[in-house]
Amino acid sequence: MAALPLPDSFRALTVHRDETGMFAGVPEDRRDPCASLHVDEVPVPEPADGEVLVAVMASAINHNTVWSAVSEPVPAFRSLAEYARGDPAGHRHDLPYHVLGSDLSGVVLRTGPGVRHPRPGDRVVAHCLDVPPAGSAMHGDTMLDPRRRIWGYETNFGGLAELALVRADQLLPKPAHLTWEEAACNGLVDSTAYRQLVSRNGAAMKLGDLVLVWGATGGLGPYATQYALAGGATPICVVSSAEKADLCRRMGAELVIDRRAEGYRFWKDPDTPDPREWRRLSRHIRELTGGEDRDIVSEHPGRETFGASVYVARRGGTTTCAATSGPWHLYDNRYLWTELERVVGTHVADHHEAAAANRLVCQGRIHPTLSATYPLERAPEAVTEVARGRHHGKVGVRCLAPKAGLGVEDTELRTRLLPELQRFRANGRPDGHGG
Is 250 helix (H, G, I), strand (E, B) or coil? Predict the structure, then answer.
């Protein structure tokens, strides 16, 4: 593998620096990611100290790819410029184009100086935390390192491409029973849910906890639901359709709220939250739980739901890891201080947490939520599907994999787990709706 000749260039999903302001003044719901995304031929980077060049078989779409496409909340090239100013290694990333993508599954092609593991030919998946070798103060939690960045979002050479450049310590073993596209879809959301719920850096979930999960069939929510079920907790899944409610029940969740059917509106107008709806949601949850309050809220939509999350949480616990509906939150602080709640910010995961989360996937205890895959040339369309919320689970992208269904080594485990692996598939087709 190490002796294979490399091409001069490769295909990649990119945004361009000279188009950064193209959505200025355009209403959020009219920003089309397809207008700013390109599938380009870009030069092959050379691995530096501690880096690895990976042949990408498959990748996946995350909300940070949507944010990069629409230059919100921070233009992608601002992060690359800051990287170049603050780190001697960062100048290579500050280019006129940005290769996107924070997930991958693939095969190691080349290793830079100082890399002993992995080796060329190894099958790997990537964790998206990019952090230089940490000083002793950061050994307890590398997420606390001020130099840490999200690969493929705050760095260049991401996973939505035929080749990707990553640090060696980002790479973990590919689950042998999964296809390339199934393996690629777990990394960011799986490790985020692990840190948010399971880790002591998050909620430290325990047996018997009640866990409210917003968006339980989206990107992060299904992993939060799986961790709750696997850890002996009880998830209360909030979704937006009867179809999604049924999907939660098929995952094993018994307590499900279809917020659209119930007509929940947490805002009277764009600037005024509606506490009456918070109280109505709290009563609804207590009806489902026999009068008990929630121990943990898996909060990630942000602006739309944060006020309700603070209101409905039991004394001691709300965790938050994202803001997909907007970063500016309004809530009633009386419920935060008088109920002694903790709002715990959790962001992706450190290397130890990511390895633990990936181990559970390798063991077949946590399952991918792939619903559709697209070939790389249609990746802009896949990003738009996620931006518009027209998906459930994760949307994958085939990069070098010529078709869906390849990459499986452990057929025995796969056969045993096949119903779980295909639960999110659209119409049972290997490539879902994406083709």
Answer: helix
At 166 the three-state DSSP class reads strand
In this predicted structure, what is the pLDDT of residue 118? 95
Q: What is the mean pLDDT of the chain?
A: 91
Highest mean pLDDT among 53-62, 294-303, 311-320, 331-340: 53-62
- Gap between the Cα atoms of 99 and 113, Å rounded: 23
* Homologous superfamily (CATH) for 9-189+351-422: Medium-chain alcohol dehydrogenases, catalytic domain (3.90.180.10)
Output the CA torsion sign for 269, 212, 220, 256: negative
Domain 203-345, what fold?
Rossmann fold (3.40.50)
Distances in Å between the alpha carbon of 134 and those of 138, 171, 351?
A: 6, 17, 11
**φ, ψ at 99 (rounded to 5°):** -80, 120
Mean per-residue pLDDT for 361-370? 97
Q: Are 86 and 149 in contact (CB under 8 A)?
A: no
User: What's the whole-number mean pLDDT along residues 192-215?
Assistant: 93
| Residues forming beta bridges with residue 97, ordered by sequence position | 16
Residues 6 or more apart in contact with residue 161 via CB below 8 angstroms = 10, 11, 12, 13, 42, 56, 59, 99, 101, 376, 399
Domain spans of the chain?
Answer: 9-189+351-422, 203-345
* Tokens read off for 197: 């719920």
